[in-house]
Design goal:
This protein is mainly alpha-helical. Helices cover 44% and strands 5% of the residues. It is built from six helices and two strands, in the order H-H-H-E-E-H-H-H. Strands 1-2 form a two-stranded antiparallel ribbon. It is elongated and about 55 Å long.
Length: 154
Amino acid sequence: MRLALTRRADYAIRACLHLASVEHDEPVPSRVIAEAMGIPVRFLPQILGDLSRASVVDSVSGQRGGYRLARPAAGLSLLDCIEAVEGPSISTHCVLETRACRRDSPCAVHPAWIEAQEGFVAALARQSLAEVAARFTGGPVPDGLAGPGRSAPG
């Protein structure tokens, strides 16, 4: 079995990590995010649009515009970033047939499959963006992670 992120989810996490790693509350232009995180410039606006619609990032227009986290990084999880671009993580697709498993008559694999999916999703939900950003940068999470107009705890 191969558990892997889609390219969209990979880029969403990279963009969010970059925004979580900045030490100020100023919006970051998409080209800066793309260059810093190795994301194709032509693809990033789609990802940032999805993240914005999901209220993970805020889009700021104007000459000094760009993107910033919509909430403190401690209040955002890896799952938030992934589901913003991929949709819900729990699949109802039947493992044995080409239909959705029905609650009244699930397939024989259904209980094990749901348990595995729920464990995977729970692990992603437990990892805050602040925790991952701290590991990514190799240091403490900057105060700027508190989000617009807020101060960091401490």
